[in-house]
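Q: I have two molecules that I believe assemble together. Could you output structure tokens for the complex as a whole instead of separate predictions?
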Amino acid sequence: NAGVTQTPKFQVLKTGQSMTLQCAQDMNHEYMSWYRQDPGMGLRLIHYSVGAGITDQGEVPNGYNVSRSTTEDFPLRLLSAAPSQTSVYFCASSYQGLGTQYFGPGTRLLVL
Amino acid sequence: AQTVTQSQPEMSVQEAETVTLSCTYDTSESDYYLFWYKQPPSRQMILVIRQEAYKQQNATENRFSVNFQKAAKSFSLKISDSQLGDAAMYFCAYRSSSGTYKYIFGTGTRLKVLA
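A: Yes, here they are, computed for all two components at once.
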């Protein structure tokens, strides 16, 4: 099993550009989520999904879109990048019943 | 809404000694999960230990153990025989066992291990 994979590992964007961060898991987990990690602020939940076709907002959803067409994939879209979105982004997944969340390796995003 | 608080931004411990990292949380639920995750410089989030709230027995994983005080809403992590490889950020996290299953993370504690 590859676990949770994320691409790209690092990306530089200009203000106003759009892009999609990819996340995939091969563990058949129902629950998937996106976090951003900023210095001194821990991990903050952006969006999450409890199954294919179902998504909801987390703590900091503005400027981001998600969709969940399959159990395996949960892409995060930045519609118009802003310098405030410079961060490290983590995708995670878990079985809803068992609780333990597994993380991808992270994507470092720099918006100029 | 649930909250998780880690009041120690940074801790230091001498190699081979014991250190305790603190975590408190706030919830009105009776059933939930609590976790400690380790984030080394590689940035990978690694599960250290988990605790189900309905279990009174404190969870242990080798040198790592927790002190779970449900009434006080406290969940501290004890690392025994500290090793240089334990140096990392440690995050405490909460997850409800029902509803939306959202995870709430604390702001982290940076642990330094001194040789």
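A: One point stands out. The interface with chain B takes residues 31, 33, 35, 40-45, 48, 50, 56, 58, 88, 90, 92, 94, 96, 99-103, 105-106 of chain A (CB under 8 Å).
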